[in-house]
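User: tokens in, sequence out, please.
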């Protein structure tokens, strides 16, 4: 395991974000370390899932960049482990992979990844994706309600938690943002493009099938209350007003 810290003199210690890079190719790790360090991030490198688990036992990073095709445990399985553990469940995960088929991307999002970047990647695009995911993971103060309630579902936006009938539900960052959007305006239909803009930001290229898969995952985690998310065929989705 290797750690490199860059530009700490330019940033207060509390503002430096830690990124965990899980990648078995030393060359790609070096590229990621170089560009992300130039952006002012503290970069922690792991060559395997086993190393990453040791690292996570010691500290919680602000974001994980996860290679899909790792020796031994692959990125899909490790992402499931991350999401199943309450201690790590809310860490944003960006999968980085040479596999560019729709099925691979959809599978990555379905197991809980917040974004998916295809190799070879542009350093500028990757940095922008990292910034966007980190920005979405931070609850911004504002005039909006801190708590949203729709029937038995409650979102606490300051604590970044969701409860159903008082029981906690563990959602990925994308699922949380999606539910937050729907709960802000119950009964209003949101198109897939509006959902993508709210979850990933404007001009983000993602196929409608990916949105459908994430909605399916959200419904599953909401249990019987998942039926409150209604499909409006040919348009998008809405949360049934209760």
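Assistant: Sequence out:
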């Amino acid at each position: 395991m290797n750690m490199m810290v860059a530009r700490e003199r330019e940033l207060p210690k509390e503002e430096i974000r830690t990124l965990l890079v899980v990648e078995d190719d030393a060359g790609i790790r070096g590229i990621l370390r170089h560009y992300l360090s130039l952006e002012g991030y503290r970069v922690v490198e792991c060559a395997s899932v086993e190393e990453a688990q040791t690292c996570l036992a010691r500290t919680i990073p602000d974001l994980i960049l996860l290679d899909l095709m790792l020796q031994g445990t692959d990125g899909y399985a490790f992402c499931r482990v991350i999401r199943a553990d309450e201690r790590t469940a809310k860490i944003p995960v960006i999968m980085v992979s040479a596999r560019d088929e729709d099925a691979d991307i959809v599978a990555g999002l379905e197991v809980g990844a917040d974004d998916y970047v295809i190799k070879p990647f542009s350093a500028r695009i990757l940095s922008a994706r990292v910034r966007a995911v980190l920005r979405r993971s931070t609850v911004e103060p504002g005039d909006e309600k801190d708590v949203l309630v729709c029937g038995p579902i409650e979102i606490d936006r300051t604590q970044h938690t969701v409860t159903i009938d008082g029981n906690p539900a563990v959602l990925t960052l994308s699922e949380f943002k999606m539910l937050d959007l729907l709960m802000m305006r119950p009964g209003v239909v949101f198109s897939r493009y509006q959902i993508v803009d709210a979850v990933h930001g404007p001009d983000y290229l993602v196929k409608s099938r990916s949105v459908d898969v994430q909605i399916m995952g959200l419904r599953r985690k909401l249990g019987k209350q998942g039926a409150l998310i209604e499909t409006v065929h040919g348009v998008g989705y809405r949360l049934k007003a209760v």
